[in-house]
Write a structure and sequence with these properties.
single chain, about 300 residues, ph1033 like fold, two-stranded antiparallel ribbon, 11 helices, 12 strands, about 25% strand
Length: about 300
Amino acid sequence: MTQTGYIYVPAPSKENLETGLDAGLWGWRSSALDRAGARQVVQGLTEGDFLILGHRGPNSRVAPGGWAEATLQRVIITQITRPLFVATDEVWPDDTYPERIGIDTLSEENSVAGLSLGADAMEALRLSANKQGAAVVSQGSAAVASIAAGLPSVQGGTGAGDVAHTGDTNAVAQVFVRREQQKLRRALIGARSTVACAFCGRVFPSRLIRAAHVKRRSEASRQERLSLDNIVPACLMGCDELFEHGYVYVAADGTLASGPHSSTTDDLRHMADTIAGRVVADFGTHRAEFFRWHREHTAGVSA
């Protein structure tokens, strides 16, 4: 069964919080996990479990249940990508925090009421606050599902053009990933009814345009996946799939080229060759590194 861990992050640790989210890590001093079985609790968290980070709540020195109707200024929902491990490379500015877990940020919400998380989740965060940020773990993912169900819709972010995601097998996690993509789609396309494909240049109704990651989301950092420099409009009439699977790629000069695997069939090669030689829209130094990653890791071209 999926588990959910809860960690409260006090206001003075804001910089460490941002650093950890950007690095896809959370860490503890070894001395913090030496107390009261804290290490065993964290060791019980496995890949795919959820971790909720609460930030800037009220005074935690209240009776049990005292946070049930409180509000947390920020709640970050993450999913564990790597169970507890030890490393000493420098990540945080003030200390090493060698005992670490890998995390993937799914959603960041502001001003979250305790009723949205549920009384049990709020109590777990209150207990964590009183344990100097030690994790409190419960079975299931009810709090995460509750937040997902209560999220408002993203205006202009729905439709056939949303990014499809492979590899996100947890249905609750998919809700957050799709919402993230809806926000990116809204920022990229806005209220436009028609949009030009970055690859073929043809103009289609916006519902036939996908907001596509250049560098694969699963390989991108938190900052990279939210950067519009890593998102391009790709039509559903063939360009999105050609690029997604590396049958076409963007060369260092910004021109499209047929990938090594595009010759799998004659028809596939013809489709790739149809747009080869075009200059991708809005190519520049701001996108060059993302296209380089796609060229090397998806298309398999080293040059």
